[in-house]
């Protein structure tokens, strides 16, 4: 998640049917799982196709060996009108490593995977959505991509959310702005 920026609810509902091109790392985030229920994304803008950065692409390719060939699970997905429900056969990308079942909620992911792995790694607790925040902050700090691209990649309707929630500048990670200005101004 740290190299892709999805919401936790989107990551746990990602299915192999959403992987457009595994080699190129193109995935479609089109549903989320909230309180044990699957629903299409809250807004049309949240439903998006993204091209993964190399570390995320490689992790997805490794995960394919573990879960891509599992049998689909038929789940009920609520449409955006909050009334229409459709049954969808899905092969989920991420599974509980103990039970081999798809994660049934973000709480179960937190208790069964996230906390134990942070503890084993000696990392103080932080919520899994920190991965999303870190992804956005790192993209912003590089200055390499426009705000609009970041908003689109993360499923936001505008750049305002990016500025408001993720706009922390990380000096040590950023480019040499003085050097860039001196070069641009021919100083």
Automatic annotation (TrEMBL):
It comes from the Bacteria. The keyword GTP-binding does not apply. Gene3D superfamilies: Intergrase catalytic core (1.10.443.10). Residues 1-179 form the Tyr recombinase domain. InterPro entries: DNA_brk_join_enz (IPR011010), Integrase-like_cat_sf (IPR013762), Integrase_catalytic (IPR002104). GO terms for biological process: DNA integration; DNA recombination. The keyword Membrane does not apply. One of its GO terms (molecular function) is DNA binding. Pfam families: Phage_integrase (PF00589). Keywords: DNA recombination. This is Phage integrase. It comes from Pseudomonas saudiphocaensis.
